[in-house]
Amino acid sequence: MKKIFVLILMLAAGSFILSSCGGGGQKSSKADDSKKAEKQLTVNIQNGETVYKKVCIACHMTGVAGAPALNNKERWTEIAKKGMKQLHHDAIDGFTGDYGVMPPRGTCTDCSDQDLYDAIGYMLKEAGVSAQ
């Protein structure tokens, strides 16, 4: 009985993670996003918090799939050494690291590049670190 409960719990959690999309921004084309990426992006913390709460929280609240939990300052300090440009690239294209996997766009198909950038900035701020 315990095994069935664990299996159901894992399936429910997986379904939640895979279906977590949302983002506070508008849809944009890849060409639009590329043009925006060429510009210097600035972090909108309020939008970042919105995106985090709709999407990123699924993994980053507790560290699902090896994601750095929002309160894990040590991991975020290590990650921040990559710099915002690389972190943003990893969020867009996905990343497999020593601890786990970041799926492309965090599974959020309707998050803009700016939404992802803002979410990264928000998580770094909440963890108490800054990107180098």
How would you describe what is shown here?
It contains six helices and two strands, in the order αααααββα. By secondary structure, it is mainly alpha-helical. A hairpin with a 4-residue loop joins strand 1 (95-96) and strand 2. A two-stranded antiparallel sheet has the order 1-2.
CATH architecture: Orthogonal Bundle
Q: What profile does the largest beta sheet have?
A: 2 strands, antiparallel
**CATH fold label:** Cytochrome Bc1 Complex, Chain D, domain 2
- The total count of strands amounts to 2
Number of domains: 1
Secondary-structure content class: mainly alpha
Question: Residue share in helices?
Answer: 55-70%
Radius of gyration: 15 Å
Shape assignment: globular
Q: How confident is the prediction overall: mean pLDDT?
A: 80
**In percent, how much strand structure appears in the residues?**
under 5%
Number of helices: 6
Main sheet: strand order? 1-2
* Ends distance: 49 Å
List segments where confidence is low: pLDDT < 50 over at least 5 consecutive residues: 1-28
Q: Would you identify the CATH H-level superfamily?
A: Cytochrome c-like domain
Summarize the SSE layout with pairings.
Layout: H1 2-19, H2 30-38, H3 45-60, H4 73-80, H5 84-93, E1 95-96, E2 101-102, H6 113-127
Antiparallel strand pairs: 1-2
Helix pairs in contact: 3-6, 5-6
What does this entry show, briefly?
The protein has 132 residues and is mostly helical. It has six helices and two strands. It has one domain (2-127): Cytochrome Bc1 Complex, Chain D, domain 2 (Orthogonal Bundle), CATH 1.10.760.10.
